[in-house]
What we know:
One of its GO terms (biological process) is regulation of translational termination. GTP binds at residues 25-32, 93-97, 147-150. Residues 16-287 form the Tr-type G domain. The chain is α+β, with helices and mostly antiparallel strands. Helices cover 27% and strands 28% of the residues. Guanosine-5',3'-tetraphosphate binds at residues 25, 27-33, 52, 147-148, 150-151, 265-268.
Amino acid sequence: xSQTTPSESQLAQEVRKRRTFGIIxxxxxxxxxxxxxxxLFGGAIQMAGSxxxxxAQRHARSDWMEVEQKRGISVASSVMKFLYQDCEIxxxxxxxxxxxxxxxxxxLTAVDSALMVIDSVKGVEEQTRKLMDVCRMRSTPIMTFxxxxxxxxxxxxxxxxxxENTLGIQASPLTWPIGMGKLFQGVYDLVNQEIxxxxxxxxxxxxxxxxxxxxxxxxxxxxxxxxxxAAESLRQDLELIHGAGYPFDRDAYLEGRQTPVFFxxxxxxxxxxxxxxxxxxxxxxPRPRPASTREVSPLEQEFSGFVFKIQANMDPAHxxxxxxxxxxxGRFQRGMKVRHHRIGKDIQLSNAIIFxxxxxxxxxxxxxxxxxxxxxxxxxxxxxxxxxxxxxxxLGIPNFAPEFFQRVFLKNPIKSKQLEKGLVQLTxxxxxxLFRPVxxxxxxxxxIGSLQFDVTAARLKAEYGVDAAYEPLDYSTVRWIWARDxxxxxxxxxxxxxxxxxDVEGYPAMLFATRWRLERTREEWPEIEFLASRExx
Length: 537
Ligand code: G4P
C-alpha cells in the first residue's frame, strides 16, 4: 500500500480532537459502572448493563480472548473508543481486581491523562495510591470523581484533605455535594453556579435533568429549593471553599499538581455528564513524548509509536501475540512498513487491529493518541519503538518493582534450556519479571499481582512444555540499586552479596522482606539509590 504523508492541518485536527486516558481506582469504587455510563454518553454502547453483565466474564470489550474468557478472567486490558462532542476518546482499561498486574501500571504510561474514581465511603484506598505513584512519575493530569454520594459517606472536606495528604496533589472541587445518603439532593456546580438536582433514574435508566441557577447564595430561593438546613450548610461549605480552597488552575491540572474534583453517583448516572464535559474541554490531547535523543511532537508527520503491552494466547496454536502500540506522531495506515529499531529490521503492519468507535467499520488509519494492536510472533517486546524513518527510542515505559515473589523449581532438569528460554521471553513480553541471585542459580519470579504467576505457569507448560513447581518467597518488594559513587556501590555489594539479585538484563537489585527493612537499609546507606522502577533498555 502506498503511504502518503498527512497534511499538517489534517494531522493537527486529528491530534486536537483525541483524548487518551485510563481510570485509576481501587476495586469496587465504581470504575466499571462509570465506564459504562461514559460509553453510553458516547453512544459506544446502547444499553445500560451491557458492560456490567460481562464483568463477571471479564472484560467487556476484549471477548476475542477466548482462552481467558474460559477461565472467567482476562489478563489483559483493552481499548474502548467513543466519540463525545467533537472528541475521539480512547479509554484504556486498567485491570483492577484479581487481574491487577504490571500491565495496569504500564497502561498508564500510554495515556495523556487519568480519571481517578474514589468511593466516598472508603476514601483513598491502596490500589489508587499505587496507581497514583505511576501517574506522578509522568506528571499525568488527573480528574477526580468521588462516587457513591447516594450512600452515607465521609465528609467531603475530609475526602479532599485525604486526596491532598495521601496523594500529594491539590484538590479543587468543581461541584459540591448537597447532603449525602438518603439526604443527597444533588450538587452545586461551582463553575456554572447552579444546582443540579439528584433525581433517581426512571425504569429505562433515564434521569430527567433538573437544574436551577443560583448565582447569589444568599438568595432565599436556595432555602425554598433545598430546605433551610441544607441551604445553610451549603453556604458555609462554599464560603470555606472560596476562602481556603484551591480555585481551578488549568496549568496546575495539566502539570499534574492539581486535580479538579466532581461528586456524583455513577450507578445513578449522576454527575457523569459534568465530568465528561469538563474532560473533553480540559483534558490534554496527545502531548510531546521524550525519546532518548529528543522529544517527539505528535504533530510530526513521520509515524512513530511504542509498545506498552503484549497480549499472548490470542491463538495458542500459532503462539500469536498482540502488541499494543500507542501512536505518538504522524499517521498510521494499514499495511505500512515501519522500522523496528531494536532488531534493525523493517516490518509491515498489515494485519494491525485498529480500535475504533462503533459504526466506523473499514477504518484504515489511526492517529497520535490512538492505540493499535500489532500481530506478531514474539519479535516485539515492551518498550519497543517503531517509526517510519528516524531511529528513535521512546522513554518512560519502565519495569515496576514487583511485590510478590516465587522461586521456580524444575520437575525435570532436562527442561532447563526451555525454562530459561520461556522465562526470558515471558519477561520480554512483560508477563512476569525474572531475577537471579548474584551468587546462585535460582530463578526468582516477581509480580505486581499474583495472577501473573498462574499465567506464567500455564504458559510455560502450554508453550514451552515446562512443568515446574513454584514456591512463594517471603519478600515484599525489590529495589534496583544504583549509586554515583562506585566505591560505595562496591562496598554495598560486598556487604549484601547474598541478598542481591540481578534482573533479566543484568541490572542489580535487592530483595526486601519488609518495607521497614527497605527503609532501614535506605537510612543506613544514603549514598545508594533504591529505585522502585527501571527504565526499559
Ligand atoms: P469496580 O469496577 O471499580 O470494581 O466497581 P463497579 O463499577 O463494579 O462497582 C462496584 C459496586 O459498587 C457495584 O455493586 C456497583 O453497582 C456499586 N456502585 C457503583 N456506583 C455506585 C453508586 O454511585 N452508588 C452506589 N450505592 N453503588 C454504586 P455490586 O453490588 O458489586 O454489583 P451490582 O450487583 O450492583 O452490579
